[in-house]
Amino acid sequence: MNKTIKHISRIRDEFDIVVCGVNGVLTDGQRIFPESIDVLVKLYQSGKKIALASNTGMRVQNLFWFLKRSGVPMNNFYAVITAGEIAHYHLKNQIKSGSTYFSLDKNKQCSVDGLAFEKVDSVVLADFILAETNKFGVETEQWNSVLEQALSLHLPFLCVGNDTSVLTKDGVKANVGSLAEQFAIMGGKIIPFGKPDLRIATYLTENIGDFDASRCLFIGDNMATDMRLGNNFGGKNLLLTNGVHQIKGDLTKQVDELSTSYGLSVDYCMEKLEW
Question: Domain tally for the chain?
Answer without folding.
Answer: 2
